[in-house]
Design goal:
By secondary structure, this protein is mainly alpha-helical. The protein is 47% helix and 5% strand. It folds into 3 domains: 5-135; 150-269, no CATH class; 280-416, Alpha-Beta Horseshoe (Leucine-rich repeat, LRR (right-handed beta-alpha superhelix)). The protein has helices spanning 5-12, 14-17, 19-37, 45-70, 77-100, 104-130, 134-137, 155-167, 186-191, 208-214, 233-244, 260-269, 280-294, 321-325, 370-374, 397-401, 418-429, 432-451; strands spanning 297-300, 308-311, 334-338, 360-362, 384-386, 408-410. The protein has a 6-stranded mixed sheet with strand order 1-2-3-4-5-6. Strand 5, helix 16 and strand 6 (408-410) form a beta-alpha-beta unit. The chain is elongated, with a radius of gyration of 34 Å. Bound molecules: heme C.
Amino acid sequence: MTSAALPDLAGRLHPALVHLPIGFLLLLALTEIAGWLRPALRPPPPLRTFALAAGLAAALAAAACGWLLGRSGEHEAALLDRHRWAGVACTALTAALLVLRHRPVPYALTFTACLVTLGVAGHLGGTLTHGEGYLWRAAAPAVRPVVASAADARVFEDVIHPLLRQRCIACHGPAKSNGGLRYDTAEAVLRGGKSGPLLPPGQPAASLMLRRLQLPLEAKEHMPPKGRPQPTAAELELLEWWLHAGAPVRGQLADHAAPPAILATVTARLDLPAAAAPDRAALLSLARELEARLGIVLRPLAQDGPWLEANARLRGPRFTDEHLRALAPVAAGIARLDLGGTAVTDAGLATLRAMTSLQRLHLDQTAVTAAGVNQLSGLSRLETLNLVGTTVGDEALPALGRLPGLRTLYAWNTRLSEPALAKLARGRQEAPRLQQLRRELADAEARLQAETFTVHRGAEAGASPPVSPPDPP
Ligand code: HEC
C-alpha cells in the first residue's frame, strides 16, 4: 500500500468508528436514566468518567476519519457540511460533559443537547450514504400493480431509473458518488455532478450524460468505464430518447409521445404482453360497410394483417370533416390515409388522433393549416406527410419537429420557408441515434480498411485494385 492510500483507508473507517461513541454515550445515558428512577442503579462516578473519556476519544477518532472521508469530494457539499458540524458539536458536547460531570443540572441539560446533536449527525450521515428520504423509503410498497402496456409505464420510475440503477448506481449512488454524481433519486439525477446539471438550461442536447455514453469505448471519459457492463443498443436508445424529450421525471410514456421503437423496448424490458393488433375480420366487415356508405376506397393493405388504406381523393370536395369522423370505428386500423383535394379542415383532423397506426398521410390541396398539423402530434408512427399546396407555414415547425417517426415531408408550394425547412432537416440529421450510426459506420470502414490486403506493383501508386483474400475451400 502506498502512503497516499493511508488517509483513504482511515477515511473509510469512519462509518464503522462512529458507532463507538454512539454506543458509549447511549449506554451511559440509559444508566443515568435508570439511576434517576432507582438510585441503586446510578453509575459510580469513576465509571461515568471512564465512559465519557472513552466516548470522547472514540468521537475524536471518528471525527478525524470523517474529516478525511469528506475530502474525497464524493459527497454532496451542503449536506456534508451540516453533517460535519453536527458531528463536531456532538464531540464538543461530550468534552463538556466530562467537565460538567459533577454538576447534576448542567450535566443533564448538556447530555440532552448531546443526544439531540448525535441524532441529527447520525441522520445526516445516513442521508449522505443512503440518499435523501432513506428513512421512509423502505416503508413505501416495493411493488406496484403491473402496468397494462408500455404506454402506461411511468417514464422515470418504471423505465429510466431501473436502467440507471442497473448500469450506473454502483459508482454514482449511495456507496460512491464519483464526479459528485448520484443517480439514486430523480432530484439527484437532474442535479447532475460536479460539471453541472443533467441538462444544461436551454440546450437539452448538450447533456454530459449523453456525450459520455456515446464516446468510443476506449475513451477515458466513456461511461460506464471500459471493463464494466455496458448498456445495450436498446438501452442507449432509451436514454437518448429520454434526454431529448427533456429528461421528464413525471408522467407516463404516453404523456411524452414515446415513439413505437421505445414502446417496444419498454414492452420487452418490463415483460409486458405485446399490444394486440385490431381484429382483422371485424375491421374488414366494418370497412366494407363504410366504403359503400362514404363512396371512398377503404381496403386492406395486405393479404393478411389488419391494416387499412383509406383513399378519399376521388370524392374531392364532397368529402368533408363529417365523413372523416365516420371513419372513427376503423381508426385504429388505418395505416395510410389520402385526404388530398378533399374539403377536410383543421377541426376535422381531430379524428386522426385515434389513428395511432397511421404511417402515410396526404393532406395536399386542402384547407389545412398549422393548427391542423398540431393535431397530428400523437401520431408517433407517421413516416410520410404530404402538405403540398396548403397554406401551412413556419408556425407548424414545432409540431413537425415533434413527429418522431417522420422521414419524408412533401412541402412544395406551401408557406414553409427554406431556412425553416433546412433547420428542421438539420435537427433530424443531428439526432444522436443517427450520429451514433454514422460513428459506427466510420469505425466499420476503418476496420475494413485495416484488414484489406493491397498489392502495389510499383508503376502507379494506388492504381491497382486491392486483392481480396481467396475464398476458403
Ligand atoms: C465503475 C464505476 C462507474 C460506473 C459503473 C459509471 N461511472 Fe460515471 N463516473 C465514474 C467516475 C470515476 C467518474 C469521475 C471521473 C470522470 O469524470 O471521468 C464518473 C463521472 C461521470 C460523469 C461526469 C460527472 C460530472 O458532472 O462531471 C457522468 C455524466 C457519468 N459518470 C455518467 C455515468 C452513467 C450515465 C453511467 C451509467 C450508464 C455511469 N456513469 C457509470 C465511474 C463510473
